[in-house]
Amino acid sequence: MTAKERFLEIYNEKITREGSDKLLDFLLNGSDFFTAPASTRYHGAHEGGLVEHSLNVYDCLKDMMERLNERYGIEYPEESIAIAGLLHDICKVNFYKTSYRNVKDETGRWQSVPYYTIEDTLPYGHGEKSAYIVSAYIRLTRDEAFAIRYHMGFSGTEDPGNVGRALEMFPLAYATCCADMEAAFLMEGKLAGENK
Predict the structure, then answer these.
(1) CA count, 13 A, side-chain hemisphere, 76
(2) What is the pLDDT of residues 160-185, one digit of tens each?
């Protein structure tokens, strides 16, 4: 099963809220979600990296929520977990562009190689842009909105006091932040190669 097929299977099974069909149509026909990278040079910096990262975050988030439920009795509907995990980085659709630069190969000859650049046509931050895009199609619960908004945790540019309060008040936000870091650093980033 391809990453796109798995995403569609989970999305269609778990996300049934009013407007979810229109959001999926946007992802399929109005965006590059299934071919976009997840970053320019870090985790998932390749074609299809965004959908792969979204699935990894979803998987990590499911595991995290099972642990939080066992330890603290914290529970969320599967739909909320799917929304936060699969859609937290929707701000990256139609965001990366392919450009070319000259690099010397092993023989010393110049070669034109592709790389990703950023073309931000909606400069609205990161987490807040994802929450904004998703909420244009489906109504988010407060917990889902905060999970998407603060999934970057303390690595974003927002006031650390606000981040800390959001992660404390909304367990789904805390879990999404942890799942995003696990996926990016342990499953996809430099540490992924070291841990194999």
Answers:
(1) 29
(2) 999 999 999 999 999 999 999 999 99
